[in-house]
Amino acid sequence: MTEATDRPHVIKDAKGKRPQFYSQPGIDQLMSMVMVLAGEVCMLRDRMDAQERVARMHGINLAEGIDALKLDDDALQAREAYRQDFLDRLFYLARKEASEAAAQESDEAYRATIADIAVN
Amino acid sequence: MLNCFQQAHHAMLPVPTHDEASRQEFAKSLKGFIQSGLLPGLAPVYQTRAAKAFEREHGRKPEDRRDIRTAMVPDPYFQLYASINRIAQELLWEATNLSVERELPELIAKAKELSASTNAQLVMPEGFVAPRYVTALDIHCMPGGYASEVCEDDVSVGVLYDRGVFLYSMGYGGPHNDDMGRSVCNYIKRNRPDFAPRRILDMGCTVGHSTLPYKEYFPDAEVWGIDVGGPCIRYAHARAAALGHEVNFAQMNAEETSFPDGHFDLVVSHILLHETSGKAMPRIFKEAYRLLAPGGLVIHADLPPFDLMDPFTQFILDNETWYNNEPFWGAMRDMDQIALSEAAGFPKGETRFTTAPMAIMEFMGDGYAAEATESVADREFTAGEFAPGGGWEVLIAQKPVDFAAAA
């Protein structure tokens, strides 16, 4: 194999102005990100499916074991902790907005800070 | 039955990791979903609201494909359809390029090895410059287009095209993406059983998908594929060797080749013309005429002209022009191909459109379940879907045996 640093790189973007499909700027970007994420969800599901199939080839019925799995308290705790943490990250902007409201932060205050720091 | 068509592996294709293969499958599934789940909604959206909104604004009904486009572009459903279609196109190249990037130096080495193993010629002239209509935009949004090279002896865009086209066409072109060439061969065999071409030229062959069936159906013929894309030609030569076919490839422009007059008995092209230009297309027709021996056949398998379709169908097809970097797609369909052929020298009234039935039924077997294969072949033509169900519209003309007859 050629050394990683010497390896050539393919061209990643097609030449030619990309059309804007949605009137509001940013929506095109958002849609492409949603579809990339949808693709990754499908890929992860394929990978889990592959795990079950590989395990079966080795005599382990992972799928059946997964369905039959009884979650004990430790497992329930761990999963709930993960879900709450994930939701917290997913809604980080809502958290931020609430904390701004609590602290009474505002655009005016932000601009005032810029003006103040510039001279003081 | 679901379409789970799988591309046949050969030595020049990368071996994708599980996750690369899965991402590529996702892009292909998304294309399929757009066709079955989003495309059918366009007609009712147009009829029940977009056409009416147009009429309110302009005081008349939409008349042609341009009016329909004006009506549809602001509609949220159309915006969703068109944007997801574009994203699917981008994702299929992006997902394929993961494997190409990872294996590129090894693929280049393999191409050299395979090319050295065959007696077939590979002609790559020094200083060849690809025409502007191929390099101005990256056609169908394929990063790099047909001619870009990222290193010496590069084949990257050839690999990208081979795998990407399979995903784009959702496997409808068969395990080797060769349905178009195979369909034209079938057509010739059925309609001209005694036709025995000594030399066959495939113009604008890219990686030789459609070229190889000609060697298979006419094993005694000398077969040539030409294209302006250097990496594609290099890849095509190696791919043919990988698949066990002795087919010659040359980097040449179909407008002006270096073959002598009357050199070929059969000149063909597949999905070439719509990727050329208003000036190039008549020149290609003339060059085909020059290259044909008396009695020789030319067959161009491409897109049928717009005048054979209703305006809504035209509008759907013309989305490729606007959203998929296909600058000549719409204009080409407006050209009078019969008149071009006659202007190139073919006798009046002797050029015609005909249907070459899809060869997909022959693919049943590994990765091509019978029921899914039948359902592709049995479809009615639907604008926006890949490939008509029944067959390819081809333009066919014969050079007179007796030159006096042409006068």
Number of helices of chain A: 5
Using a beta-carbon cutoff below 8 angstroms, give the protein chain pair with the largest interface and the number of residues from each chain. Answer: A-B, 30 and 46 residues
So what's the overall shape of chain B?
Answer: globular
Kindly report the name of the CATH homologous superfamily of the domain at 160-406 in chain B.
Vaccinia Virus protein VP39
- The tally of helices of chain B reads 15
Strand order of the largest sheet of chain B: 1-4-3-2-5-6-8-7
Give the overall shape of chain A: extended
User: C-alpha Rg of chain A, in Å?
Assistant: 24 Å
Major pleated sheet of chain A: none
Please write the CATH class name of the domain at 160-406 in chain B. Answer: Alpha Beta
Write down how many β-strands of chain B occur, each being a DSSP E stretch of 2 or more residues: 8
Low-confidence stretches of chain B: none
SSE ordering of chain A: HHHHH
Within the CATH hierarchy, at the fold level, what is the topology of the domain at 160-406 in chain B? Rossmann fold
Strand portion of chain B = 5-15%
Using the CA coordinates, give the radius of gyration of chain B: 21 Å
The description of the largest β-sheet of chain B is: 8 strands, mixed
Oligomer category: heterodimer
The proportion of residues forming helix of chain B, as a percent range, comes to 40-55%
Cα distance spanning the termini of chain B:
55 Å
Structural class of chain B: alpha/beta
